[in-house]
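Treating backbone geometry as a discrete language has practical consequences that deserve illustration. Part of our work consisted of pairing the sequence of a single chain with a tokenised description of its backbone. We regard such an encoding as a compact summary of how the chain folds. The amino acid sequence and the backbone structure tokens for this protein are reproduced below.
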Amino acid sequence: MDWLAMLDDHWGWLVFAALLGMAEVVIPGVFLIWVALAAAVTGLIALVLPVSVPVQLLIFALLCLASVWGGRRWYAANPVSSQDPMLNDRTARLVGEIVTVVEPIDNGRGRVKIGDSVWSCQGPDAPAGARVRVVGADASVLKVELA
């Protein structure tokens, strides 16, 4: 059976919407749900109005654009709160930590040890072995002050 012939029936669109909804649950990314919504509305339109397959595809494409645009706007206005907002911002998680200088900070540049790794840092001059506090970061360079 040709897949375009399946779309001629409203059930094809509704099954497609259900499959996309299930895929959103299995592979969460908050994108497929908007496409599933467009497919479901296209299926309902095909149920109510006798429209040809090319018109259904055009309706689906327009609804996809509108639903994804609307979903992005909604999520921008209503961000999802996180229990750990700095989960993927490792440098922000280090702010406030007391660390050890392993290469002297000379002319504002040096290296500090955090856990089992060594990071570049900027801050006031300090000898190796000094303790400094992380106060910020610029990309992967930590900004430190004397502790």
Summary: The chain has a mean pLDDT of 88. The chain has two domains: 3-77, 90-146. The radius of gyration is 27 Å. Residues 3-77 form one domain.
